[in-house]
Amino acid sequence: MYLSKVHIDWLHAKNPYELHRALWRLFPDRPDDVRGFLFRVEKIEKGQGAVILMQSDEKPEQLADSVTLQALRDLKLLIQPGQRFRFRLRANPTKTIKDVTKGTVLKKGKEYTRTVRVPLIKEDQQKLWLKRKLEGCALLESVCMQPETALNFRKNRENMSGKIQTVLFDGVIVINDVTVFKQLLELGIGPAKSFGCGMLSLAAA
What we know:
14 strands
């Protein structure tokens, strides 16, 4: 696993959808439908661009002027059961509900009401959401939640726009199952990974 610090110019950083597309340029031989990387925006400055922390399963390559690879580290995961870590996670806590206004969908010969994701706004709901995501591999010892401004995006090619509600989690976890935890770490936590959610960063507690 590789951990990278990346800078993206303002032209691509100002739209979250274009920012994600720019990161793909660091992996020229990877199919567009197999991401293989997670990221988190650490800093964004109007007119200057964004600083990104990125985790990837393959080594990124510096090939485009719009994306600058500033630092690269081959990350060795030495994790033991019972080990405590401080963590940081930007996530999009949601729940799925039925929405009759969206119509129905046919699955295996049965008709179902379509569902939509809605954000979890209350802190106790967000905390329970994270505990469920960690269940079976880590214990949530402590956590604080920082709500963030809604993230607006636009897909120019599809002429679509939308927004997601993100939360920044900081806290301490205790590892139970190393194998399952590493899988979670590699795959990311929750939805909206293409918008910088889901990457779990660790430091010794």
